[in-house]
Structures are given as structure tokens and as C-alpha cells.
């Protein structure tokens, strides 16, 4: 059995790993339905808004771990090709979980977990860029879109082959696609800021729905 066939057989498991509801579990332990409060997105940013930075960091770490585990399994079996195949499967599981009617997170943390396995310094640099944009604008969605666009450009600028640039561009495209609703809210001036912390989940839900 070839390495590629083994990786293909692991795609469903990588997808299921990606569906692990990190934000939902952390929020429920604090008595909140993360899909019904704040922005309604089951991800690290919304968890931060609702529960503070510790809970948000925990969710980010768990979501990144999903991508890293899938990517690590892929690279050990079939090199870069296996990493991208299983990494993308995990990201799709996170963003489009079949058990939750394909209503998942935005994929930023899970994509970061995939990238850190192969390009740790690049991931560190993109994380710094993300943090700087959030600090300046207080908009995590804007920072995420900019980083998603910049990541494949940075890989190309570093001289990596198209076999790396193309799948990373695909990762970025998934992240951007998942942020289209955020971008529309940004244009209308309705996007919640990253620093926004809802002490009252119901109040936050009303603002997000408005």
C-alpha cells in the first residue's frame, strides 16, 4: 500500500478530528452557548469576547492542535503532500462540521496549526502580523483575512516551490471565504471588535443580530 493511499484512508479521521467543538465545550463549561451569543461563531475570537482571554487562548490552542496533529500525521507518512491533504481535511472539519449542519468556525487557528508543523518561523511572523493588526484595528476578522492573503506571498518570497505555495494559498482561500460575512459587516460598520467582551451574553447576542 502506497503512502498516498494511507493518507487518503486517513482523510475521514482528519476531518472528524477537525470537527472537535473546542469553543462549544469551553463555553458550555461556563454556561454559555457560543453559537447563540456574541457573533455566534464557534471560534477563539468569539470565545474571547464572551469569556475573556484565558478561555479564548484555550480554544485557539485546542483548534490549532487539531490542525497540527493532522498535519504531523500527514508529513510523517507522506511528506509535504500528506501534510497538506490531512491538514486541509482537518480545516474543513473545523469550518464545515457535518454534525453541526456545516456551521463551524473560521479556520484561522486550525490553519495556523497546520502551518506551524512545516513553517514555524513563518507562522510566528504571521502571528505577529495578526497581533499588530488586531492591536491597531481591534478587528480579528480583518487581521485574519490579511494574514491569509499574506501567508502564501511570504512563502513565495522565501523561495519555496509551487508545491508549497499552491496549497497554502488554498488554506488562505478557505479562511477568506469563511470571513466573507465578517467582511460585509466590516463594510457596514457592524463588525464586533476583538476587544469587545460581553459580560451579558444575551446583550451580546442582540448586538450581533442587529
Supply the key terms:
about 210 residues, mainly alpha, 10 helices, disordered C terminus
What does this structure look like?
The chain has one domain (3-209). The longest helix has 43 residues, at 53-95. It has 210 residues and is mainly α. The chain is 75% helix and 0% strand. The chain has 10 helices and no strands. Helix 1 (3-18) crosses helix 4 (53-95), helix 4 (53-95) crosses helix 5 (108-118) and helix 7 (140-157) runs antiparallel to helix 8.
* Overall shape: globular
Give the averaged pLDDT, no decimals: 89
Largest sheet: none
Query: Uncertain runs with pLDDT below 50, 5 residues or more?
Result: 198-210
Helices and strands, in N-to-C order? HHHHHHHHHH
Strand content: under 5%
Count of helical stretches: 10
Gyration radius (Cα, Å) is 17 Å
Measure the end-to-end span: 55 Å
Tell me the quaternary state: single chain
Query: What's the total count of β strands?
Result: 0
Helix content: over 70%
SS content category: mainly alpha
Count of distinct structural domains: 1
SSE layout and pairing:
Blueprint (H helix, E strand, L loop, with lengths): L2 H16 L3 H8 L14 H8 L1 H43 L12 H11 L1 H18 L2 H18 L4 H17 L1 H9 L12 H9 L1
Helix pairs in contact: 1-4, 2-4, 3-4, 4-5, 4-8, 5-6, 6-7, 7-8
